[in-house]
Amino acid sequence: MTHAMQHGAAAVYSDSSATVSPILEARNLRKVFPVGGGSLFGRQQTVKALEDFSVCLRPGYTTALVGESGSGKTTAARILAGMYQATSGDILFSGVSSRNMPGGLQSRKYHQHVQLIFQDPFASLNAAHSIRYHLARPLQIYHKARTKTDLEIEILALLQRVSLTPAEQFIQKLPHELSGGQRQRVAIARALAPKPSVLLADEPVSMLDVSIRLDILNLLTRLKDEENLALLYITHDIASARYFADTILVMYAGQSIESGPSEALIKEPKHPYTQLLLSAAPDPARNSVEPLIGKGESPSLINPPAGCRFHPRCPFAKDICRTGFPKRTEIQKDHWVNCFLYTDALETASSDIPAPAAP
Amino acid sequence: MTAQNKVILDVQHIGVDYFSRSGTVHAVSDVSFSVNRGEIFGLAGESGSGKSTLAFAVARLLKFPAEITGGRALFYPKPDDARSEPIDILQLNKKELRDFRWKKLSIVFQSAMNALNPVLSVQTQIIDTLRTHHPHLHRDEYYQRAVELVKMVGIAPERLKSFPHQLSGGMRQRVVIAIALALNPELIIMDEPTTALDVVVQREILSEIQNLKNTFGFSVVFITHDLSLLTEICDHLAIMYAGKIVEQSNRQTIMRNTQHPYTHGLLHSFPSLYGEKKQILGIPGHPPDLRNLPPGCAFHPRCAFAAESCRTVYPSLQPVDASAADHLTACHLYDPRLQPNGPPKSLSRQVVNDEPQTIETDILAGGQ
Question: Which residues of B touch A292 (CB under 8 A)?
Fold first, then answer.
């Protein structure tokens, strides 16, 4: 209990604008995956997938994690969902540290409140089972329906909520009879079944056709508003993050590099990588095609570059960038960046020191 | 230049069916378009719209259960070529096809990992292509050309010894492009060449394609579901829906003077990074089942403007008006016989009443 006392939620939120206290909070998460068998004498190689990751999810608000493949966004979501165990760092749910939760992040109680929606609705539903089965399982496991009639009513209500109407027809269908968008709606309904307070959506629309993506995102936004959910929206599409998220957190090669209110971050991106990402996004409304500054691809995370991992691509890289990671600099209220262009101070964060107030 | 010299590929009334136990699927029906020399022609559509099938038909890559049911795909050789009359790709025999493919027309496939052989080095795969078409060259000549090719797409020649799994996604796609360029083709079909790539790499590959096109003067048929990408790079584009072209014109016209409600919906399915944040609704409903197409216009169940005629009669691809002959659309809204008051002033409302999921919620309420 002592740990939770020291770093209680109240101490961290000095920010006055954060009127809604967070429901789920990640502090300084770090994740290292072992790779290969490792030879008898050699050192075990590891993938440094996530470094010093902190985020706050508040009821009724959407936070977007934006980054390319290998940026650690899915790893972060899976740690938050309790699927992976963080190498270090802590997760707080309603202000209670995971270390003080009975059963920790693997407990049924935690899973009831924090639900994950997967990227690929073609893989996340079981082809052998009907929609009824997919929705009945969580309702039974989390005791949301007592009798058979109750169960049927609840399933139909869930289908209605995700606009799969007429629900009576969808209930007995098999996944292969549905289109991609309809399947993703079933996956969303399944995530809603335990009445969660946090939804983690891992690229929920990237496998879907362009014309139905907005429908699904609009649906998630409607559900978030109706049920006051805290929504984490993971995407590689920064333009969609602008529309659907209140806050954007940009990640690169496992490091969080910039975060802020979505409009402010997109209008005035500070980190060279955020600027690169914005200039690369296809946009018919763009006036001219400017050349990319900082081309290239993400580094290998087995031997990531020291210091700021963007430095090999960064046109502004200085000596200090190659050795240390910059301290978080607050540009404006809630808008911060980790870049030596804006500070000379080094980041000293370790898993024992509480994070600065994340937006 | 005469009109004949300008065109490199003229596809006329092509149709492709897939045979299945549950019935024949008309994946492509009666599609015509032409590609000019040196231009990027975009084919846009969702999955199942027939865009890849169409491209595969033109390249004669389809196998049973797919069958080309009719039409012609005329390829016009360079004006200085000895053979000046057009070649109908669909009529070539096996030997002629072998000679034609890759020398005149090559293909870049969607998934570079699947297009490359995982157990052969990049060098072997490039030289394999060269050796097949020019069997009597010296080993060094093959190697020199391979070096030339990878340099062209921005890969260091040292990487020739690499195997596909040692390369990043972007580099693999570059290798596939290098192989497509190996024999200096006049036309390259690119089937979603950047779909699996990150945005930054995607943009690099796109500018690489544009540079190469400007240097070597080949034409590109660029297939993608991402209309925002096409509107940046294409000269002409065609939008496909349920196996048919629904709108076709040059880029500026498609963007500024959108006619078909589906095109309009697609263009308004992408949030923009610039300008005012406004409410966007996408297109309600979902793409149709090709085995069981709705009667009339296949788009009518999702269309806010659907009238009685849309449910019964398929609109043919027609010029929008006499002044814009190169702007074609297949929509009854522009048929004066059916719309005596003229087309609607704005296509902006996309809400269909019988689809309650088309949310009226203001998505911006939470965002500001």
Answer: 200, 203-204, 207
**pLDDT tens-place string over residues A176-230:** 988 888 999 999 999 999 999 999 999 999 888 888 888 899 999 999 999 999 9
List all residues of chain A from 102 to 161 with a beta carbon under 8 Å from chain B.
none
Nearest to B350 by CA among B293, B279, B298: B279
Q: Could you tell me the two tokens for B247?
A: 């709108």
Q: Is the pTM of this model over 0.95?
A: no
Q: Taking a C-beta distance cutoff of 8 angstroms, is the pair A274, A258 a contact?
A: yes
Q: How confident is the model at residue B352 (pLDDT cuts 50, 70, 90)?
A: very low
DSSP assigned state of B328: E
Residues B8 and B156 in one domain: yes
> Per-residue pLDDT for B170 more than 70?
yes
Q: Which of B170, B225, B363 sits opposite A221 (nearest CB)?
A: B363
Residues B66 and B17 in one domain: yes
Q: Is the ipTM of this complex over 0.85?
A: no
Residues of B in contact with A282 (CB under 8 A): 199, 202-203, 226, 228-229, 232
Contact assessment for residue B59 and residue B49, using Cβ atoms and an 8 Å cutoff: no
Q: Which of B353, B357, B360, B364 to mutate to test the interface with A (most CBs of A within 10 A)?
A: B357
Overall domain count for chain B: 2
Instruction: Express as a percent the part of chain B with pLDDT over 70.
Output: 89
Domain of residue B215, residue span? 3-225
On whether both B218 and B367 belong to a single domain, the answer is no
Rounded to the nearest integer, the mean pLDDT of chain A is 86
Quote the tokens at residue A175: 């996944």
Q: CA B51, A184, A246: angle at the middle one, nearest 5?
A: 105
A288 contacts chain B (CB < 8 A): no
Contacts of B203 in chain A (CB under 8 A): 279-280, 282, 292
Say yes or no: B213 and B274 in one domain. Answer: no
